[in-house]
Write a structure and sequence with these properties.
Elements: E1 14-17, H1 32-44, E2 49-51, E3 56-63, E4 66-73, H2 80-91, E5 98-104, E6 112-115, H3 124-133, E7 140-144, H4 156-163, H5 169-192, H6 194-201
Parallel strand pairs: 1-4, 1-5, 5-7
Antiparallel strand pairs: 2-3, 3-4, 6-7
Helix pairs in contact: 1-5, 2-3, 5-6
């Protein structure tokens, strides 16, 4: 895996959250990327609206003296790259300026992991993004959703049910805090670069609160 040189400060210009359209997917674990874009848009007062040319909900704003764009692809998860590529082609953005936010079962709920590059790790939305952008050298922020209890390798039905399920009440409280952390993390990446945000937020955790 080749990462951007340490001397190169990577400042995102397009923030993408992965998810599925339709109300039945709202607040599901697999749609936490959409929830992150909603949180960022609220915090930065960016209006999102459906844009057919970009095949997604799109908005523009100004943050840290940087022109910033946010996107929620409406192509369904496994075709997310079509929407991302439509935006990068229109604005002539290099892949390194695209920060993609998505769910990760390999991280526990409450953990974030920001990276400058990497593989799809089995995530269909990221497979599509890598395919359409032509390489995997772009930053990504993974939000941990954890694994289902008694998870068994190869139990695809249980996995699908889990990722398409909604957070329970206790988890939802944590998710609110996690999304606040995501906003702070992305804001620092705009201000000081992705690497600085990695150093500050990759070791942070939101802890499960006992009843």
């Amino acid at each position: 895996m080749t990462e951007a040189p340490a001397s190169q400060i990577v400042i995102p210009q397009l923030i993408v959250g992965l998810g599925n359209p339709e109300p039945k997917y709202d607040r599901t674990r697999h749609n936490i990327g959409f929830a992150a874009i909603d949180a960022i848009s609220r915090a930065w007062q960016i209006n999102l609206s459906e844009n057919r040319k970009y095949q997604g909900e799109f908005g523009e704003g100004q943050k840290q003296l940087t022109k910033i764009r946010v996107l929620k692809p409406l192509t369904y998860m496994n075709r997310s790259g079509q929407s991302i590529r439509a935006v990068t082609d229109w604005f002539k953005l290099p892949p390194t300026s695209v920060l993609i936010i998505y769910d990760d079962m390999d991280l526990p709920l409450g953990k974030l992991r920001l990276r400058l590059s990497g593989s799809a790790g089995g995530h269909n939305g990221m497979k599509s993004a890598i395919s359409h952008l032509g390489n995997q050298n772009f930053p990504r922020l993974r939000i941990g959703i954890g694994k289902p209890q008694n998870s068994v390798a190869g139990d695809d039905a249980n996995t699908i049910s889990y990722v398409l399920g909604q957070f329970n009440a206790q988890e939802s409280v944590m998710v609110t805090e996690i999304l606040s952390l995501v906003v702070d993390c992305v804001e620092l990446s705009l201000k000081q670069g992705v690497e600085q945000a990695m150093n500050r937020y990759n070791n942070r955790s939101i802890l499960v609160k006992s009843n």
